[in-house]
Design goal:
Blueprint: E1 4-6, E2 22-25, E3 31-34, E4 42-45, H1 49-56, H2 86-96, H3 113-118, E5 123-126, H4 131-141, E6 145-147, H5 158-170, H6 174-195, E7 203-207, E8 219-220, H7 225-229, E9 233-234, E10 245-246, H8 249-255, E11 261-265, H9 269-278, H10 287-290, E12 294-297, H11 307-321, H12 331-343, H13 348-353, E13 362-363
Parallel strand pairs: 4-5, 5-6, 7-9, 7-11, 11-12
Antiparallel strand pairs: 1-2, 2-3, 8-10, 12-13
Length: 371
């Protein structure tokens, strides 16, 4: 749990109107002195930091941005540009007007102290989860460096909730943070409640999950959290380790007859399409493919996790597997409801319009989709 303890003592009544210095424990266990509500110049570094800050903090306080999040630059990492990143859809114009605090992206996994210093921040929000490097950067730049984390279950993980709480405490946005956490928990509870008593469960295969870059039909997970929340039977059960990982082609083929439904992450389509062009029999063992039961969820990993899309995907998966239980759920309306909670904006149309969204949540026509 995040630790908060006041470090200022013996203040006069006049001084009580000024922000008090407070010690916080960040998400990698470092104790850092901060002054909640006092920060006017913010920099976010590392995969996912700017996204998480944008959920709680004021983007007008940003004084620098990584190149990967500045679409006005011609020379920058562009590997995620076709994928919907709702924080970019919401605040991309703001980011484009800011100076560089580093390159960013999966191929630049180090904080750039000189560029950060050039932005003159008074606090840095980081997703570089390394204690020694965070301490060294903080000493070098002379301002608090606060590290966030999200945990293996992403938007549903207690680590994510604690990161939101931490941001709320630092930026005087406690109510906003608590409202978002409560919203996420209520959404998960509703999905779980609707599906708790299901006994006749189809077997579902999830594939194309992002793992430091886009992947293909063999990248899956035996413990996909959306399946756990929606009480869905995962066709992949016997892998030696947990988490997102590839399976062998032979195992994919062997599981095919048990695949009642396939959920494919949209980010993987660009990699699967050329494979299918080489061998259009690659899905022939899959019952779901033969029966036309293949569905496209929105890409939820693009410079780390799109947490709001991961939540929306969970609704889509539950609706796909148990359509009668979710007949009242319209995915455009649900998408807007979730983006309103995270950003205060309806973003469904913009998310679905991104090239790698292929028009939004949908059933794939297996006869023509990859032609």
């Amino acid at each position: 749990m995040m630790a908060l303890s006041l470090c200022a003592c013996g203040r006069s009544e006049a001084e009580d109107t000024e922000p008090a210095e407070t010690a916080v424990t960040d998400r990698i266990g470092r104790t850092v002195a901060v002054t909640p509500g006092s920060y006017k110049r913010v920099v976010c570094i590392g995969a996912g930091a700017l996204r998480m800050y944008s959920y709680i903090g004021d983007t007008a306080l940003l004084c620098g941005v990584e190149d990967i999040d500045n679409t006005s630059l011609s020379q920058r990492p562009k590997m995620f540009d076709s994928v919907a990143r709702p924080y970019m859809l919401s605040y991309g114009d703001t980011f484009a007007a800011l100076p560089s605090c580093g390159v960013g992206g999966p191929n630049a996994q180090a904080a750039e102290a000189e560029k950060i210093l050039s932005c003159t921040p008074d606090i840095v929000i980081s997703e570089y989860e390394d204690v020694e490097k965070a301490d060294a950067l903080q000493e070098q730049i002379g301002v608090p460096v606060i590290t966030l984390s999200s945990g293996p279950d992403g938007v549903f993980d207690e680590d994510f909730a604690q990161s939101m709480t931490l941001l709320g405490a630092i930026f005087d946005e406690e109510e906003k943070a608590e409202a978002l956490i409560s919203f996420i928990r209520a959404q998960a509870d509703e999905i779980s409640k609707r599906t708790a008593d299901v006994t006749d469960k189809p077997h579902v295969y999830i594939c194309g999950l992002g793992n430091w870059g886009t992947t293909d039909h063999l990248m899956t997970s035996p413990d996909y959290v959306a399946f756990d929340i929606a009480h869905i039977s995962n066709v992949v059960t016997d892998l030696a380790s947990k988490g997102v990982q590839p399976i062998e082609e032979e195992k994919f083929t062997a599981l095919g007859s048990d695949m009642d439904i396939i959920i494919m992450d949209a980010a993987a389509v660009k990699n699967i399409k050329p494979l299918y062009a080489e061998d259009n029999t690659m899905f022939d063992s899959c019952k779901a493919w033969q029966n036309g039961e293949v569905y496209l969820q929105m890409a939820y990993n693009a410079y780390y996790t799109n947490y709001e899309i991961a939540l929306i995907n969970t609704w889509f998966i539950a609706k796909t597997v148990y359509p009668d239980l979710f007949a009242d759920i319209d995915m455009t309306e649900k998408t807007n409801e979730v983006t309103q909670a995270f950003f205060g904006k309806d973003l469904a149309a913009e998310i679905f319009a991104c090239p790698s969204s292929f028009g939004g949540y949908r059933k794939i026509d297996t006869a023509t989709f990859f032609d």
